[in-house]
């Protein structure tokens, strides 16, 4: 269980950073003047991929893993065995989830505004159907990731109804 929890934690951290990278990439696709565009030029993307993999490996090897709780059919950092609950806090996971939720929400709100502006003011250089579908797909995937991050931060520190825990894991 320890190794599976560590693998899940590392995978989650890497996946979250991938979603933020995807959101930034979508911003660059729709706005050629976006300030972070330089990240995706030339061979820099390989460094970003290396950063994502390194972050996932760090989460796997050097942070407290979650442990499976049969009562809730879920993974928690605190096994609730009447020990000091501060022993089981994973600060990186909590910080990751908070930051990812903020970044994804911000980037996709920006993208929605930009997409609305482009489709309203410019018919010739507007967004085509394929771009809209890619944007919609990216938004759905990253929104589910943000929702899961919000729920997981909440459920690590507060009593959470089982249905909310289930929603957090399904998303």
From TrEMBL:
<keyword id="KW-1133">Transmembrane helix</keyword>
<keyword id="KW-0472">Membrane</keyword>
<keyword id="KW-0812">Transmembrane</keyword>
<feature type="transmembrane region" description="Helical">
    <location>
        <begin position="45"/>
        <end position="67"/>
    </location>
</feature>
<feature type="transmembrane region" description="Helical">
    <location>
        <begin position="134"/>
        <end position="153"/>
    </location>
</feature>
<dbReference type="Pfam" id="PF10321">
    <property type="entry name" value="7TM_GPCR_Srt"/>
</dbReference>
<dbReference type="InterPro" id="IPR019425">
    <property type="entry name" value="7TM_GPCR_serpentine_rcpt_Srt"/>
</dbReference>
<feature type="transmembrane region" description="Helical">
    <location>
        <begin position="87"/>
        <end position="113"/>
    </location>
</feature>
<protein>
    <recommendedName>
        <fullName>7TM GPCR serpentine receptor class x (Srx) domain-containing protein</fullName>
    </recommendedName>
</protein>
């Amino acid at each position: 269980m320890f190794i599976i929890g560590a693998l899940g934690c590392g995978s989650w951290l890497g996946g979250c950073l991938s979603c933020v990278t995807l959101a930034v990439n979508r911003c660059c696709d729709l706005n050629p003047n976006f300030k972070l565009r330089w990240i995706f030029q030339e061979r820099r993307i390989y460094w970003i991929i290396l950063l994502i993999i390194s972050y996932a490996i760090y989460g796997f090897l050097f942070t407290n893993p979650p442990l499976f709780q049969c009562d809730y059919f879920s993974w928690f950092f605190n096994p609730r065995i009447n020990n000091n609950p501060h022993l089981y806090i994973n600060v990186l996971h909590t910080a990751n989830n908070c930051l990812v939720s903020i970044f994804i929400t911000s980037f996709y709100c920006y993208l929605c505004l930009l997409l609305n502006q482009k489709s309203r003011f410019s018919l010739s250089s507007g967004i085509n159907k394929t771009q809209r579908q890619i944007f919609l797909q990216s938004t759905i995937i990253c929104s589910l990731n943000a929702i899961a991050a919000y729920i997981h931060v909440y459920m690590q520190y507060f009593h959470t109804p089982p249905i909310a825990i289930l929603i957090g894991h399904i998303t």
